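Re: folding output
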Amino acid sequence: MVDATQDAGSAAALFASFNANASSAAKTSTAVDTQDRFLKLLVTQMKNQDPLNPMDNAQVTSQMAQLSTVTGIDKLNVTLQALSDSMLSNQSLQAATMIGHGVLVPGKGIDLSEGSGYGGIEMTQSAEKVDIAIYDQAGALVRNIHLGAQKAGLVNWQWDGRDNSGTSMVDGSYTFTVEAIQAGKPVDATALQFGMVHSVKQDKQGVVLGVGQLEGIALSQVRQIL
């Protein structure tokens, strides 16, 4: 008579060893395969157990409970993966409807076209003074825009394309900075860049957009759809 318990340890030890490789085995086997393999191990051990020292019923029950847990986790992983794939597909479809629409995303660029440029600001709290400074591609100051007091949240602003002397600037790409003050102290203000959504694709980050001259903009970065 072969004493499987003495030669290979308890079924729990076999199961523990099996679990140690579960992460790699999961890539090539299903939950059904996992259950079948374990049951074969358990039946083999029971057939070869010492009749004078049989396996404890509580031990068998415990091992079966472990098997049920592992099988349940495998099924849960499959379900979650399917749900994730479905959500990604839905996001792609929703994002596709944004093509051709203007959005505000974090950025400091402003495109002047036909004498008009648009931008935005996102503030964490109200400010009694909000100023915009626009610069050309050489870094020279072009225009100061005073927005006055603004409440917390999103603030949209427009540039008429003129410099501080009233001269019309040529169409093209410019940059801007934001300064927000409350009671003499700076307020956190995020510059938002306006652009038209022209593409939607999937990458490692999920669904990303092409906005104006910007690429790889995540959906979570879109602050407003105009």
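--- second protein (sequence, then structure) ---
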Amino acid sequence: MGLGFGSFANVCIYRIPRGESIVEPASHCPKCGKQIKWYDNIPLISYAFLGGKCRYCKGRISLQYPLIELLTGFLFLITYYKFQAAPFTLLIFLLLVLCLLVVSAIDLQTYTIPDKFTYLLILLGLFSSPFNSFLGEYSLIIGSKKLSLVLSSFQGLLVGGAILYLIALLGQRMFKREAMGGGDIKLVSGVGAFLGVVNVVWVIFLASLLGVATGGLLAIAGKYRRFQPIPFGIYISLGAILVFLFQPGFNRIYLNLISICR
């Protein structure tokens, strides 16, 4: 199922930045325009069988297509193992993974994050919160179970967006230019609606750490340019996936920090 949704993710990644419909026309070669037959559209298998080339024009098919399919399949599999005991939560987080993959790929190519995905994540996170067992496990709000889940989701949305907005303002004052895009702020808000306030803080910390580490490696390799745009959506997405997959470890760190502060 993950491989199939990976194929759909590729359609979104290619068409949405170009303003094209993801529904029609049917899948076609971007070089010659020929419609792709169903047997040439089987995830991974068709790419290998065709040797990475279009059947008609022999144009090279980007390696992005099998990589996205493989990555989606892998992430769907480990998400299933994480949440298989809670079917509703599993569905919620599979949708989150799919959206984060599409957002990351588009951000990497265009340095923009489509509003339709960030608003979708915000709404999906809020409306699914009463059924989100992950959110309930790490909620800081005590009270009626359903209401506390909704409030925890809303709290994560507001705190996550507010932290990144303050970072953006600080960066703008320091560098005299836009340091953080509005798409990144809305993406963190959407992630916060799924994960809650403590976990979205971890996401921001990990995303920042990964961004700095990547920038440092690029600088060492001599490939970093001053004020080069950074597709921060990738690091937010990776941070979110790491947090919800390995949350118990982050929770132990958080509790240890609290005990030290006390």
